[in-house]
């Protein structure tokens, strides 16, 4: 059994390369870690459909932390069905209020809503098409809200995509709306991941670790972006990717090679205490 019993890894710009592939060295290291008794969990802002094929490819689809931690799914061996281990949706009218803020400030931002395994957007725009290509999933194009409030329930995550200056402006506007009870972090400069204020990848790690009676000191988190900060800073061992933002590297226990150089494999070999180099 590895000293680090469970590893949580971000997906984009961490597990996969810049051209969205899993390096053979990473795949081999993950499989060796799992074979040694470790639990490897993908922890991503992606929806379930954007995570599950990668998890199945790696042979680690028993658990998935989805939607930036707002939804944790468990694959039941007996039935092969995904069941909810943990979830924390947002308050009912947040989506309508967010759309109003964006319209009143004339922000050019693509608004996307995620509920369980479904992705909804009001327009099949450039940003949606790009995200569909990256995650190999498809959005349902429909109205997102009406005067009564959100039409998407339960509302687990809102993804706002746009140019960095528009995303920065939206984040500043949300700073002025504490009553919405939101957490909003960038997964990259053009993506603002919005969830309930009580949600983070670290909250999901705590829930999973408690469910499996694993002490936090025996957990590892690997990531690169702003939305990975809580888990990098608070897991037993926090690993920053070489391509990560400076703040992630600052709070991490260790920094490894970039996603294009197999940094996840390096982390598993060096810091879980199981895989010889």
Features of this protein?
alpha/beta, 6-stranded mixed β-sheet, phosphatase activity, 277 residues, 2 domains, single chain, Cof, 10 helices, Hypothetical Protein, Haloacid Dehalogenase-like Hydrolase, Chain: A, domain 2, Haloacid dehalogenase, 25% strand, HAD-like_sf, 8-stranded mixed β-sheet, Rossmann fold, magnesium ion binding, 34% helix
Question: Any chance you could write out the topology, listing elements then pairs?
Answer:
Layout: E1 6-9, H1 11-15, H2 24-35, E2 39-43, H3 48-58, E3 63-66, E4 71-75, E5 82-87, H4 94-104, E6 110-115, E7 118-121, H5 126-135, E8 140-141, E9 145-146, E10 149-150, E11 157-161, H6 164-175, E12 182-188, E13 191-196, H7 201-211, E14 219-223, H8 229-234, E15 237-240, H9 246-251, E16 254-255, H10 263-271
Parallel strand pairs: 1-2, 1-14, 2-3, 7-8, 14-15, 15-16
Antiparallel strand pairs: 3-4, 4-5, 6-7, 6-11, 9-10, 11-13, 12-13
Helix pairs in contact: 2-10
């Amino acid at each position: 059994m590895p000293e680090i019993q469970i590893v949580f890894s971000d997906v984009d710009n961490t597990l996969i390369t810049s051209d969205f592939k899993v390096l053979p060295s990473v795949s081999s290291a993950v499989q060796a870690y799992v074979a040694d008794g470790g639990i490897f969990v993908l922890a991503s802002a992606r929806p379930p459909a954007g995570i599950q094929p990668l998890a199945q490819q790696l042979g680690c689809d028993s658990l998935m932390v989805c939607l930036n931690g707002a939804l944790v799914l468990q694959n039941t061996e007996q039935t092969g069905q995904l069941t909810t281990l943990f979830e924390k949706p947002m308050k009912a009218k947040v989506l309508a209020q967010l759309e109003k803020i964006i319209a009143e400030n004339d922000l050019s931002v693509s608004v996307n809503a995620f509920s369980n395994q479904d992705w909804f957007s009001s327009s099949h725009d450039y940003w949606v098409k790009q995200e569909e290509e990256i995650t190999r999933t498809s959005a349902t194009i429909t109205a997102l809200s009406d005067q009564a409030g959100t039409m998407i329930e339960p509302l687990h995550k809102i993804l706002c995509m746009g140019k960095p200056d528009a995303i920065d402006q939206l984040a500043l506007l949300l700073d002025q709306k504490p009553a919405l009870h939101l957490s909003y972090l960038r997964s990259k400069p053009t993506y603002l991941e919005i969830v309930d204020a009580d949600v983070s990848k670290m909250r999901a790690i705590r829930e999973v670790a408690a469910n499996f009676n694993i002490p936090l000191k025996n957990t590892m988190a690997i990531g690169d972006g702003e939305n990975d900060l809580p888990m990098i800073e608070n897991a037993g061992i926090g690993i920053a990717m070489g391509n990560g933002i400076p703040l992630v590297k600052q709070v991490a226990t260790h920094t490894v090679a970039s996603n294009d150089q197999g940094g996840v494999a390096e982390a598993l070999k060096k810091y879980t205490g199981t895989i010889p180099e």
